[in-house]
Write a structure and sequence with these properties.
Elements: E1 23-26, E2 47-51, H1 69-79, H2 97-107, H3 115-125, E3 126-133, E4 139-152, E5 161-164, E6 171-174, E7 186-192, E8 195-197, H4 202-206, E9 216-220, H5 223-232, E10 234-238, E11 244-252, H6 260-267, H7 277-286, H8 288-295, E12 302-307, E13 325-327, E14 338-343, E15 353-361, E16 371-378, H9 380-388, E17 390-400
Parallel strand pairs: 4-10, 4-16, 13-15
Antiparallel strand pairs: 1-2, 2-3, 3-17, 4-9, 4-17, 5-9, 6-7, 7-8, 10-11, 11-12, 13-16, 14-15, 14-17
Helix pairs in contact: 1-2, 7-8
Length: 408
């Protein structure tokens, strides 16, 4: 997903016309030293924030910001349910819930569909902060989409590949609840004789480890489609009678996610530059005898549930908005934060992507202070953009005026 909680998913909205020169540093929990290692040590990822102005945001006056406000409204609704003193982001870098109350309440009065009014609202209530990893403002931005599959409620004919519901014995553990240094880390397994044991991996599940237990949610006609559905985290399955069923992420087996594109590069089948969703699918289609083994190189397996409502649901618990929802690393960025993104266009257009987004999701591959996964929506265009997106970019977090992230 990016496993959406996946869906993968919102970011930060900042606003204000004031000029500040403060620079903040927000650090994740320190990693323990590894004995016996030698050579240069990569710096620990660290979110740094430097105050900016809206005139610093490239393309700010050209975006249709009104398209992002419905996404922000959904995030505000979730934020306002939380305790007023709850801190957002590491070390409370994005303020507390009470700091978001006034901006969220003011949002209701902004005329819908009016870009000038939307810009004025953001500039009135938020302050932009340049985000960086230590001093590096550049990061990687990828894309995801809502998959399209063909399926059946029963196993029949060409519909032979199950999508499984979350097993009742799957235990998902947030390690941060037990040790602060493991905040953001999760594992899963099943309890056997009082101990948590690893759950079945992809190979075992493909071989029938869950068959006959009443966990089959749907059957689809293409194993590769099912594999990529797990990576995207949500999809629409069209039944033989034309009815559509939305499905979304409902848990994962606890095994680490392994990118099969990296495996193809290691085999010499593709170069790093050639890797995209499209090139991986083309390889799988061209090598049917090896496709299953390659997919099983990724032991991670995702479970699904049926979804109701107007769209796939991100990790924040809100329906994602095509082109306006962003999945982020929650170790650094809080859900609900508006973000101004500048990134290379995945289709190679000379003009970069410059738009207002909201952090509303996360994903297993979304790691780092300057890292994001843009939700493109549903359909062929969304699939094409998401599959090709490996863009260099940068972003600004938009935080409520008056919030000054504390230096850690």
């Amino acid at each position: 997903m990016r496993y959406p909680s996946r869906l993968l998913t919102g970011l930060a909205l900042v606003l204000s016309l004031g000029l500040f020169t403060a620079c903040t540093q927000v650090r994740p929990p320190a990693e323990p030293a590894k004995p016996g290692t030698a050579g240069p040590v990569a710096p620990v990822p660290k979110l740094t924030l430097r105050a900016a102005t809206f005139t610093d945001l490239p393309g700010w006056t050209a975006d249709r910001q009104a398209e992002a406000l419905p996404a922000l409204a959904k995030s505000c609704e979730r934020l306002m349910r939380q305790p007023a003193d709850r801190a957002l982001g590491p070390d409370g870098a994005m303020g507390r819930i009470q700091d978001w109350k006034a901006p969220c309440e003011a949002l209701a009065a902004v005329p819908r569909g009016n870009d000038a009014a939307a810009r004025a609202y953001v500039e009135r209530w938020f302050q932009p902060w340049v985000a960086a990893n230590n001093s590096d403002e550049k990061g990687l931005f990828t894309g995801y989409y809502e998959s399209a599959l063909r399926g059946s409620l029963t196993k029949q004919g060409r519909y032979q590949h199950p999508l499984y519901k979350r097993p009742a014995d799957l235990v998902m553990v947030d390690l941060g609840e037990f040790r602060p240094q493991f905040k953001g880390e999760r594992i899963a397994g099943r309890v056997e004789e009082g101990r948590l044991r690893p759950y079945a991996d992809r190979k075992a599940i493909d071989a029938g480890a869950l068959a006959g237990k009443g966990l089959e949610l749907l059957y689809v006609d293409d194993a590769v489609d099912a594999f990529f559905l797990a990576i995207q985290g949500s999809g629409r399955v069209t039944l033989p009678d034309g009815k559509e069923i939305r499905v979304g992420y409902d848990g994962q087996n606890g095994h680490p996610y392994v990118a099969i594109g990296r495996e193809l590069v290691a085999r010499g089948a593709l170069t790093r530059e050639e890797v995209s969703m499209q090139s991986i699918r083309a390889w799988l289609d061209a090598h049917p005898g090896e496709a299953l083994g390659l997919m099983q190189a990724n032991p991670s397996y995702v479970f699904f549930r049926k979804l109701d409502g107007d769209g796939p649901v991100g990790a924040q618990g809100v329906a994602l908005t095509p082109g306006r929802s962003l999945a982020v690393d929650r170790n650094f960025i809080a859900y609900g934060v508006p973000v101004w993104l500048e990134a290379d266009d995945p289709l190679g257009a000379p003009s970069p992507i410059r738009r207002l987004l909201v952090a509303q999701d996360t994903g297993g591959a979304i790691r780092g202070p300057v890292r994001g996964d843009l939700f493109w929506g549903h359909g062929k265009d969304a699939e094409n953009r998401a599959g090709l997106m490996k863009s260099n970019g940068r972003y600004w977090l938009l935080l409520p005026r008056g919030v000054t992230p504390a230096v850690s």
